[in-house]
Amino acid sequence: MFSKLQKYIGTLNLAHFKQVSHIGLIAGPLVAMIILALGAPSEMQSDDGSISGAWVTLSLLVLMAIWWVTEAIPIPVTALLPLVILPLFGVATIAEAAQPYMHPIVVLLMGGFIFAKAIEQWRLHERIALYVVSKTGGRPARLIGGFMLASALLSMWISNTATAIMMMPIALSVAVAIEARDHQQKHFTVALLLGIAYSCSIGGLGTPIGTPTNLIIIGYLDDQANREISFSEWMMIGIPLVVLLLPLAWFALTKWIFHIPNQPNADAQRNVNNQLATLGPMKTPERRTLMLFCLIAAMWAFRRPLSEWQIGPFTPFSELTDHVTAIIAVLLCFILPAGQKEQPGRKLLDWDIAERIPWGVLLLFGGGMSLAYAITNSGLSSYLGQSLSVLADVHIFILICIITALVLGLTEITSNIATASAIMPIVGAMAIETGIPVEVIAVPVALAAGCAFMLPMATGPNAVVFATGQVTLPQMAKIGLRVNILAVIIISILSFTITPLVFPQS
Question: Residue 472 in 3-state DSSP?
């Protein structure tokens, strides 16, 4: 399945976007140079008459946006541009431009990626998924719900795309069993595959490490708003969203868009049970990985009480952070023995497996953070924020709806990390100018950037599903639009109601 996905993505880029990429490769620098040549407005000009850092940053933003959208060069490579442009034009030193590439949030993301490889190495995620699905009783609508629940739970902790790739073969085999017995279930496969894709994206919103956009916003709030958001605090917002949006997406797929009958299907249930039986009883490496997972999850969830825990005169965990906990997890993966009799010296994770994490995502993340740093510190965000201060008269709920819809729409056609990195400093500055709590604006940006259900290129899970050939582009766009509307409504309501309760203003 993974090789097929790679083949599809390669075909998509070469056959459909080759001309667009060539145009973007030229248009990006050309538009950036035109912006520089036109000169900055008086409000953004430097006192000495040189090109202002804000105007350079704007041209860099436009260049990166064009290259990201057109994929003129690989997306992670475009993320390296701040390391060249910012120092050359004096907007930031190389140290200042490079620091965001190893920001603590990047460390947390890297730790989460590597720890997830240990879960994947021993197929623990596959066992969890099959176990959840096996409890649905073989009814088609409930089977879809089981797959969606399993996908969402796994996506909270491991890559959304990796979860989708793992779930696809299981789902396709179940779909064959369903449709072979009941030809009236012609929409079952489409509903099932889209349900998995949507659930992977929705589940990723539940935890900080579930999707990179969550960490981008957390990093921005920590750096620019002096607001530290813990793992558990984010889950107080993310989990309610998952709890509400996941059932709504299931309802849309099985009752609203399609009408999936719910009569029991013994063949489908037998198929899932057989795949679970093939895994055999839980092995020692799986058990130890599961125990480590529970330990790290508990440390993330209860970090605040742990940091205050005293042993005599000592508080050993006073400096414990979510980022440190992630690295503890990585170290333990390479320290703890797997417990295999065949390979007594083997650890829970091998480096040749660990180094397969998506390094490109980390580069993209770092580039986005570096761009966000420049947008804020060059004064560009303040200028744009003042320009948008006319929105102060708009009711905050309407403003949240507008921002959510805008970010979600942009995410359909460009990288969600890029979208969040570019948008957040601007709307953050606008919030400061208008007196709106920054968290109330930041949360919907993060959540909306993780939700894009219409197009194959919008998210990894969407691409995985489209690569199967079972879902057409018109189907994905038509169905995804409805789920997008549901996402905008739920995200806006939760951001307006829950965020002020989780982050009360002093």
Answer: coil
pLDDT at residue 20 greater than cutoff 50: yes
Beta bridge mates, 311: 314
CA 263, chain centre distance (Å): 35
Residues 6+ apart with CB under 8 A from 433: 382, 385, 386, 388, 389, 392
Cα–Cα distance measured from residue 304 to residue 230, given in angstroms and rounded to the nearest whole number: 8
Task: Report the pLDDT value the prediction gives residue 15, as an integer from 0 to 100.
Answer: 47
Contact 159, 133 (CB under 8 A): no
Q: Concatenated DSSP letters for 176-194?
A: HHHHHH-TT-TTHHHHHHH
Please state the length of the chain: 506
Whole-number average pLDDT of the chain:
82
- φ/ψ of 314, rounded to 5, equals -105, 145
End-to-end CA distance of the chain: 51
Task: Determine the Cα angle at 365 with ends 417 and 61, to 5°.
Answer: 65
Q: Return d(Cα 430, Cα 441) in angstroms, integer.
A: 9
Specify the amino acid at residue 137: G
Task: Determine contact, residues 476/410, Cβ cutoff 8 Å.
Answer: no
pLDDT (tens digit, 9 = 90+) per residue, 378-418? 888 777 777 766 666 778 899 899 889 988 888 887 777 77
d(CA 211, CA 231): 13
Give the contacts of 415 (CB within 8 A, at least 6 positions apart).
68, 75, 364
> How far, rounded to the nearest angstrom, does the alpha carbon of residue 311 sit from its chain's CA centroid?
38
The mean pLDDT value for 322-343 works out to: 89
Taking the mean position of all CA atoms in its chain, how far away is CA 368?
A: 14
pLDDT over 70 percentage in the chain: 90
* CA–CA distances in Å: residue 197 to residues 165, 246, 359, 380, 453: 10, 11, 22, 36, 8
**Half-sphere exposure in the Cβ direction for 176 (13 Å, CA):** 7
- The tokens for 38 are 């036109």
Residue 319 has pLDDT above 50, yes or no: yes
